[in-house]
Amino acid sequence: MLDLETLWQFIRDKFEQDFSPITFKTWIDTAKPLHFTGNIFVVEVASDLHKDYWEQSIIPQVTSLLSDTLGKKIKVLVKTVDEEDPLAPQEKPHSTEVSLDLMGNPKKSTPLNDKYTFKSFIVGKGNQLAHAAALAVAEEPGLMYNPLFFYGGVGLGKTHLMHAIGHQMLENNPNARVKYVTSESFANDFINSIKSKHQEEFRQEYRNVDLLLVDDIQFFSDKVGTQEEFFHTFNALYDDKKQIVLSSDRLPNEIPKLQQRLVSRFKWGLSVDITPPDLETRIAILRTKAEAEHIIVPDDTLSYIAGQIDSNIRELEGALMRVQAYAKLTQQPITTSLAAEALQSLNGAPQAKELSIAMIQDKVAKFYHVSVADLKGKKRVKNIVLPRQIAMYLSRELTDASLPKIGHEFGGKDHTTVIHAHEKIADALQSDETLKKDLATLKADLHS
Ligand code: ADP
Ligand code: MG
């Protein structure tokens, strides 16, 4: 096992290169590594403010650095000096690998998040249908739209709405049985139930509910056994007139390798998409968030921040938290120019926004849930080949790098491989609507 000090030194070196000395001193020098157990890395930081900043800005970077370097998914947790150690040794023996879901969260039965309610959900053009359908389903479960299927890009409020339905139903009927899971947890529970011969308990757990919420159903793609089981779960609940709510980043028929009979069932109810919020909605979301967190932000500054980030509400919230952290750190009130400074110091100066092949690889890998190492590697399986070709395509389209240089950056491949990849994707774009959408999202993300 990699020793903690070596690992920490590796991380420090990396940030020492990337950060200004003051930033490094403030956020990295004050932190202390606690454990690296299985695939969880725990860091102790000095205060709540440090924790906020780590969560917003540093964890994502450390996570991908470690995951890429070690070739497995690593979860990074921070705690403040005052908080309990999430991996206190007496509870978690060193050898245990904590299983993670595909979104990188430790797998456990996920209770509803108190913050995700209808009350805290801002309705705007992009989400008003989804919101209305969610409310209808919460009030009349099993009657109106079954299943209710949300689809749309990352960070647009799908998970928030699902939790809100759960909360609302419990408020209307405290005895209601509500179960929220990610598709990954469902799959893991199912597989574990087979291994431990507890299939009956599994069925009881998933079929004796009034509301089943399954999030990010696109991860059912390829999981044949799980799809089979979910088919039966779905039928049992549906026949019982119990409400089913699903979410995905795309429409059912666009999920690769989803059984046709599931696709058709998912279309029985109502599918609603959530699209990115307009400026007005983004400002309203920021205002509510600022109020909830007791952050004082002038109106023009809210508009400024909302103007900076236009596609992802999670990032929008992250930007606000960055501005707040920056204001606290420099002991200044929040103003538009301070916000500009705070967001710039983190994004890098605007003129330095030249895209690198590494950035493209990083985004593409995250988007398709593969590792950068896979993109650079030689595996020929389909779910890696496509992202690899897309990353090559984008490297050719969006950077000035020569073909041999691109090949080199992809683990030393020949330039003809790059040409082939580029042609493949350019061809596919003629007819493949999903691919078109994916590429538009990726490009927007790369340019944001
Ligand atoms: P998704 O599941 O679509 O990726 P989430 O539901 O996780 O997105 O939303 C990302 C973040 O944005 C969450 O913190 C959520 O509370 C917030 N958010 C999304 N939509 C809204 C909204 N309409 N009003 C307020 N907050 C929102
Ligand atoms: Mg979600």
From TrEMBL:
<keyword id="KW-0238">DNA-binding</keyword>
<keyword id="KW-0067">ATP-binding</keyword>
<keyword id="KW-0446">Lipid-binding</keyword>
<keyword id="KW-0235">DNA replication</keyword>
<comment type="function">
    <text>Plays an essential role in the initiation and regulation of chromosomal replication. ATP-DnaA binds to the origin of replication (oriC) to initiate formation of the DNA replication initiation complex once per cell cycle. Binds the DnaA box (a 9 base pair repeat at the origin) and separates the double-stranded (ds)DNA. Forms a right-handed helical filament on oriC DNA; dsDNA binds to the exterior of the filament while single-stranded (ss)DNA is stabiized in the filament's interior.</text>
</comment>
<dbReference type="InterPro" id="IPR027417">
    <property type="entry name" value="P-loop_NTPase"/>
</dbReference>
<dbReference type="GO" id="GO:0005886">
    <property type="term" value="C:plasma membrane"/>
</dbReference>
<dbReference type="InterPro" id="IPR038454">
    <property type="entry name" value="DnaA_N_sf"/>
</dbReference>
<dbReference type="GO" id="GO:0005524">
    <property type="term" value="F:ATP binding"/>
</dbReference>
<dbReference type="GO" id="GO:0008289">
    <property type="term" value="F:lipid binding"/>
</dbReference>
<keyword id="KW-0547">Nucleotide-binding</keyword>
<feature type="binding site">
    <location>
        <position position="155"/>
    </location>
    <ligand>
        <name>ATP</name>
    </ligand>
</feature>
<feature type="binding site">
    <location>
        <position position="158"/>
    </location>
    <ligand>
        <name>ATP</name>
    </ligand>
</feature>
<feature type="binding site">
    <location>
        <position position="159"/>
    </location>
    <ligand>
        <name>ATP</name>
    </ligand>
</feature>
<comment type="subunit">
    <text>Oligomerizes as a right-handed, spiral filament on DNA at oriC.</text>
</comment>
<dbReference type="InterPro" id="IPR001957">
    <property type="entry name" value="Chromosome_initiator_DnaA"/>
</dbReference>
<feature type="binding site">
    <location>
        <position position="157"/>
    </location>
    <ligand>
        <name>ATP</name>
    </ligand>
</feature>
<dbReference type="InterPro" id="IPR010921">
    <property type="entry name" value="Trp_repressor/repl_initiator"/>
</dbReference>
<dbReference type="Pfam" id="PF00308">
    <property type="entry name" value="Bac_DnaA"/>
</dbReference>
<dbReference type="InterPro" id="IPR013159">
    <property type="entry name" value="DnaA_C"/>
</dbReference>
<protein>
    <recommendedName>
        <fullName>Chromosomal replication initiator protein DnaA</fullName>
    </recommendedName>
</protein>
<keyword id="KW-0963">Cytoplasm</keyword>
<feature type="domain" description="AAA+ ATPase">
    <location>
        <begin position="144"/>
        <end position="275"/>
    </location>
</feature>
<dbReference type="InterPro" id="IPR003593">
    <property type="entry name" value="AAA+_ATPase"/>
</dbReference>
<dbReference type="GO" id="GO:0006270">
    <property type="term" value="P:DNA replication initiation"/>
</dbReference>
<feature type="region of interest" description="Domain III, AAA+ region">
    <location>
        <begin position="111"/>
        <end position="327"/>
    </location>
</feature>
<dbReference type="InterPro" id="IPR013317">
    <property type="entry name" value="DnaA_dom"/>
</dbReference>
<feature type="region of interest" description="Domain I, interacts with DnaA modulators">
    <location>
        <begin position="1"/>
        <end position="85"/>
    </location>
</feature>
<dbReference type="GO" id="GO:0006275">
    <property type="term" value="P:regulation of DNA replication"/>
</dbReference>
<dbReference type="GO" id="GO:0003688">
    <property type="term" value="F:DNA replication origin binding"/>
</dbReference>
<dbReference type="Pfam" id="PF08299">
    <property type="entry name" value="Bac_DnaA_C"/>
</dbReference>
<dbReference type="GO" id="GO:0005737">
    <property type="term" value="C:cytoplasm"/>
</dbReference>
<comment type="similarity">
    <text>Belongs to the DnaA family.</text>
</comment>
<feature type="region of interest" description="Disordered">
    <location>
        <begin position="85"/>
        <end position="104"/>
    </location>
</feature>
<feature type="region of interest" description="Domain IV, binds dsDNA">
    <location>
        <begin position="328"/>
        <end position="448"/>
    </location>
</feature>
<feature type="domain" description="Chromosomal replication initiator DnaA C-terminal">
    <location>
        <begin position="356"/>
        <end position="425"/>
    </location>
</feature>
<dbReference type="InterPro" id="IPR020591">
    <property type="entry name" value="Chromosome_initiator_DnaA-like"/>
</dbReference>
<dbReference type="InterPro" id="IPR018312">
    <property type="entry name" value="Chromosome_initiator_DnaA_CS"/>
</dbReference>
